[in-house]
Structure formats: structure tokens, C-alpha cells
Amino acid sequence: MDVLIAPLALLAERRIGYPERLTASIGHPVMWFGALIDFFEKRLNIETRSPAQRKLAGVVALALVLLAVLIVSVGIRTVLSWLPFGWVVEMLLATSLLAQKELGRAVGAVAQAMRQSLAAGREAVSHIVGRDPEVLDEAGVARAALETLAESTSDGVVAPWFFLVLFGLPGIALYKAVNTADSMIGHLNARYRDYGWAAARLDDVLNWIPARLTVVLITAACFLTPDASPSSAWATARRDARKHDSPNAGWPEAAFAGALGFKLGGPRAYDGEVVDLPAFGAGRAELNAADIERALGLYRQTLNVLLALSTFVAVIVLVS
Questions:
Q1: CA atoms within 13 A on the CB side of 106
Q2: Which positions, given as ranges, span the membrane (predicted)?
Q3: Per-residue pLDDT tens for 142-188?
């Protein structure tokens, strides 16, 4: 019954999500990963060390984090394999490492806030992006929300599912640990350029297939979404995705832009510093709350396609 874990986890997490009461009482697995990453960073990322020493320290820290996650996740899975319905518990644990419900809720909250005021929209989007919200106009807030939705569809949903299918609970847990490390220390600044090198590179490797698979899913979802163009989604991703410095982030972003006729990307500010990023798509750049809601419709259909694919994979395995 292990083959049913992935489709059932997708279905359960989309409906239920991670209960807020659990977050308040015991936290969230990503928070636990973050605490461990922070623990090592404070002790190993020493400014007086040479770049090579800091890079080695980052490799050691990442290895220790992944070893801890591997030991715990394999141990849990082993114990659950001894129980009659242990696979159900493993499925429920896996739901905590998917982000379908929370991603949709957070991006939807930006659209709702924008309908109240620009200030409310800036406040809402500040919870899901790292850029400076106070310099964003209405279109900037909308683009920030959409870019986060597109990229997180890949690394928050498709990639965790991918490693859950391949390696079960240990696979999804290890992926989320790497992805959390990349988001915390995989930055190109003085503090993390060397120390976070290993986390950033490994995250790139792990997301290579899922990012491109996400484009396929988005393209298929266009057939189920009014006013979305599958041909433009596919063509824009192939044309524009490689413009991004990241080998992966540009693929889902370009696919969303092409599918909906938007123009995403472009300059953005982080901590007062403007970063000139490439543009994806050739459509409208002046976006609003209604455009976020259109994108959420495409997102939901992408999730439906992913669930169908996951179910198909499970059926093939069961009958083979």
C-alpha cells in the first residue's frame, strides 16, 4: 500500500493542510529543520575563516543536518512498517512537507488585501516574498505574489511530491531540509556566499527535474483553465526560462507568464539594493488582484493534474 502514500498525501494536504494548533503547540517540520540549520550556522560560519574554510564548514553543516534528518525519517518509517496501518501514518506525516493549501491561502490573501488598499497588499505580500514591499506599486505587489506562486508550485509542491514518490518519507524530508537550507543560507552575500554554497548547489540539482516537470503540469492544466494558453505556456518556458540566473526558478515562472498572458520578472529591490532580473513573457505587466485570482485558478488545475498523475503512477505500480 506504500504506492498510495503520494496521491493520498496530496489529497489530504490540499483539503486539510497543517493544523494551526499543531504549529502553535509543537511547531512545523520546516521550523525544526530551520532551527538545526541555524544552530550549525551560528557555530561554524565564522567571519575570520577563509572562503575555502567557510565553504567546507557549510558542506559539513549540511551533511550533519541531512544525516540527522535521514536517521530520524528512516527510523520513523522503519517503526511504521511494523504496524498494520503504518503507511497511513507515514502518509499523514508526509502531508506536513507539502505546501498546496498554505501556498494557495497565502497568495489568495494578497489578492484579498489588495482589494482593501495598496498598504494592505504590501503587508500581505511581505509574508511570502523577500523583496522590499514598501517600494511596490499595485502591479508590483501582484507580480511578486504571482512569481512566488509560480516558483513555489515547483519547489513547494511538485518537488516534494517527486521525492516522496521516489523515496517515501525519507525522500521528502531530505528534500525539504535541503530546500530550507537553501532559503536560509543559500544567498550570494558576504555572510553566505561561501558557507551556503553547498546548500544552494544541492538545491539546484534536486530541483532540476521537478522544475521542468512543473512546466509540463502547468501546460496540461491550461487545457482545464479558461483563458489560459497551453501553447504559450510551453513556448514561453522554453524561450525565457534560461534567462534566469537560477537553473530552475525561471521554468515555472515563465510557464505561468506565458499561460496567462502576463509579463513577470524584471527589477526588484532587496534590502534597499535593486537587482535587475530578466523578464518572462511578453504580455501585460500592469497586474492586479483579479490577475492573482486568475493565476490561482491555473494553480488549482495544476494541482488537479498532479493528483491525476500521482494516481496514475500508483495504479501502474499496483497492477504491474
A1: 22
A2: 60-83, 158-178, 302-319
A3: 999 999 999 999 999 999 999 999 999 999 999 999 999 999 999 98
> Helix (H, G, I), strand (E, B), or coil: what is residue 228?
coil
Which of 208, 282, 222, 292 lies closest to 251 in space, CA to CA?
A: 208
Instruction: Give the three cell numbers for residue 71.
Output: 536517521
Q: Which residues pair with 274 in a beta bridge?
A: 269
pLDDT of residue 320: 82
Q: Report residue 314 as a C-alpha cell.
A: 500508483
Report the pLDDT value the prediction gives residue 188, as an integer from 0 to 100: 86
Q: Which residue has the higher pLDDT, 244 or 261?
A: 261
Largest CA distance in the chain: 59
Helix (H, G, I), strand (E, B) or coil at 223: coil
Distance of CA 201 to the CA centre of its chain: 16
- Using CB atoms within 10 Å of the CB of residue 311, give its burial: 0 to 12 exposed, 13 to 18 middle, 19+ buried: middle
Q: CA-based Rg of the chain, rounded to a whole angstrom? A: 20
Put simply, whether the predicted model's pTM sits higher than 0.90 gets the answer yes
* CA pair distance 175, 103, nearest whole angstrom: 18
* CA-CA-CA-CA dihedral for 272, 278, 284, 287, to nearest 10: -30
Q: Residue 265 forms beta bridges with which residues?
A: 279
Cβ distance 203 to 181 under 8 Å?
Answer: yes
CA 300 to chain centre: 15
Query: What's the pLDDT tens digit per position in 266-289?
Result: 766 565 555 677 899 999 999 999
